[in-house]
Amino acid sequence: MYLRLAALGDSTTYGIGDPVPGGWRGWARLLADALGTAYDTSFCNVAVSGATAASTRADQLGDALAHRPDVASLIVGINDTMRSSWDPALIRADLMTCAEALHASGALLLTARFHDHGAVFGLPGVLRRPLAARIEAVNQVYDEIHEAYGGLRLDLASRPEVTSRRFWSVDRLHPSELGHRVLARAYADLLAGHGLVFEPPGLELGGGFEPSWRRDLVWMVAEGAPWVGRRARDLGPWAVRLALADRARVTA
Rounded to an integer, what distance in angstroms lies between the CA atom of residue 243 and that of residue 214? Predict the structure, then answer.
């Protein structure tokens, strides 16, 4: 059987957090390789680090549709929650457009409900609460997508591994190799329940680099710290307003 898999999304689907010689691997590649043990699999990963719902619609959807996927993952939206340009109506329109087009092409959709990223980051309550509200707004769109177009959905908040430090890379934003393997295995289990028979991805580490504090330090200096700086400049005024409003409620 010939099986086409397309992966749309942001840095997690791109594979950041799971380094291998030559670049990044990630959960989508691990899943594709597992499918390849039983099916003649064609894999197209159009995910881009930093992608938003709008950029996924504008820059990834066309290439994904051209691949004529039998299975397509659409996992994006967290970057939207961390930007000052946050607009839930536009995000919904972009995500629904992507889901509708992929479903109409005949693809089985793979989606997710996101967990509380603020808890993983260890954010103070004044920032964690509004971030959680934004994430829930994105989750509600994915609920709507699942109701309208079906597919297979992974609820990350229900996965106990998500709260484990080992699940995350050094920046606590991207999954570690183990985290990517857990995601790949979870989607493999969903696909198996759907009727695809193949050997699921293993949870044993392998094929990537051994954990190294030097590599983690280089990553944080080159990528992690600049990302935090960009988000701080983008969300700084928003965070200040939230803090002042929160303090006013406490003292009222």
Answer: 36
Torsion of CA 154, 155, 159, 165, to 10 degrees: 90
The model's confidence at residue 117, banded by pLDDT at 50, 70 and 90, is confident
The domain in which residue 178 lies consists of 2-211
Please say whether the beta carbons of 175 and 9 come within 8 A.
no
CB atoms under 10 Å from CB of 36, counted, come to 16
- Give dist(CA 138, CA 89) in Å, integer: 10
Residue pLDDT, tens place only, 67-114: 999 999 999 999 999 888 899 999 999 999 999 999 999 999 999 999
Task: Report, as an integer, the average pLDDT of 126-146.
Answer: 90
Contact 15, 30 (CB under 8 A): no
Residue 143's CB: how many other CB atoms inside 10 A? 14
- Tally helices (H) and strands (E) across the chain: 11, 7
Domain count, the chain: 1
CB 69: neighbour CB atoms within 10 A? 24
Helix (H/G/I), strand (E/B), else coil: 200: coil
Q: How is residue 204 written in tokens?
A: 């044993």
Backbone angles phi, psi at 24, to 5 degrees: -120, 150
Give the span between the Cα atoms of 70 and 109, in whole angstroms: 9
Q: What is the CATH number of the domain that holds 200?
A: 3.40.50.1110
